[in-house]
Design brief:
This protein is mainly alpha-helical. The chain contains 13 helices and two strands. Helices cover 76% and strands 3% of the residues.
Length: 294
């Protein structure tokens, strides 16, 4: 109860829970998507998806940790900024992987879909936010709360992610099969990946809900009302993917502008004083104990 009373910690937990739903759903159903949309056999789909996602995630996690350490020497706020940026950059990579038209590179007898390059990119950027969120939350609580805090964050990530991610993606695929046929899994995964936008928004600051509502057709009621009005009066049909092609870039642009305006113009912070205070508090906390490291 005391930990969840720390608002920043609660927001990070919710962000990781939503990101886990998107990530686990994508990871479990990714090979099935390659089988259905790119006509790959099961063994080849699993091999390509595992290699692309694994290599991207391994390199992304190492790079994210290294780069965050460099950035936080100048401004400790990068411990939450960089995870937010990683989620935002991973989102268009995931969309591109799911929406890219069929087409292969032929490596001997192995057919490699062009979309696999975006699977590597998604794995790279999506690997930034989980470890960096663990690191950031360790500075939000007392030394004797760190182990419990890490366990609670892991609970949100695995309970919502591993528990609900594949289930929600599969249920949405079954729901969409009547409308999209074999392509239903594509749109189910697109919808669950949109939760990464919410992950970034929870890690961001203020006004994010209004900005994020523009990104998808169901993000806010006026979007669906506009689509229905155009369909009924002008016979203009706007699909979910078509809306996102315009809405996601606009939403990302507004989010970045809002972050710049809030942090650089409206609410400026003396970073030297903040860095000195944080370094002093870290020294007072002392080294991590053996149970905390375990």
């Amino acid at each position: 109860k005391a930990l969840l009373g720390i608002r920043a910690f609660l927001m990070v937990c919710l962000a990781c829970g939503l990101g886990g739903i998107a990530g686990y759903g994508y990871g479990i159903w990714g090979p099935s998507f390659l089988m259905r949309s790119h006509d790959l056999p099961l063994a080849q789909a699993g091999l390509l998806f595992g290699l692309a996602s694994g290599l991207g995630a391994a390199s992304g996690a190492i790079f994210g940790g290294w780069y965050c350490d460099r950035l936080t020497r100048r401004d400790p706020r990068w411990q939450l900024r960089l995870p937010m940026i990683g989620a935002l950059l991973g989102l268009p990579m995931g969309f591109a992987f799911l929406l890219w038209p069929a087409g292969n590179w032929q490596l001997g007898s192995l057919a490699v879909p062009h979309a696999m390059i975006f699977a590597v990119g998604f794995g790279f950027f999506n690997a930034w936010w989980p470890p960096l969120c663990y690191a950031a939350t360790s500075h939000m609580m007392a030394p004797n709360q760190r182990a419990l805090g890490a366990a609670m964050l892991n609970l949100f990530l695995t309970l919502f992610g591993a528990g609900l991610g594949p289930l929600i993606s599969g249920a949405l695929s079954d729901l969409f099969v009547g409308r999209f046929g074999p392509g239903s899994l594509r749109y189910a995964l697109l919808l669950t990946l949109c939760l990464l936008g919410l992950t970034a928004l929870l890690l961001g600051i203020a006004y994010a809900a209004s900005i994020g509502g523009i990104a998808t057709l169901i993000g806010t009621p006026p979007n669906a009302l506009l689509a229905a009005f155009l369909k009924d009066n002008y016979d203009v049909h706007i699909g979910f993917g078509q809306w996102m092609l315009l809405g996601v870039p606009v939403s990302l642009g507004m989010l970045l502008f809002t972050w710049w305006w809030l942090t650089r113009k409206r609410f400026t912070l003396n970073t030297d004083a903040a860095r000195t205070m944080i370094e002093q508090q870290l020294q007072e906390l002392g080294p991590m104990s053996k149970p905390e490291k375990m």
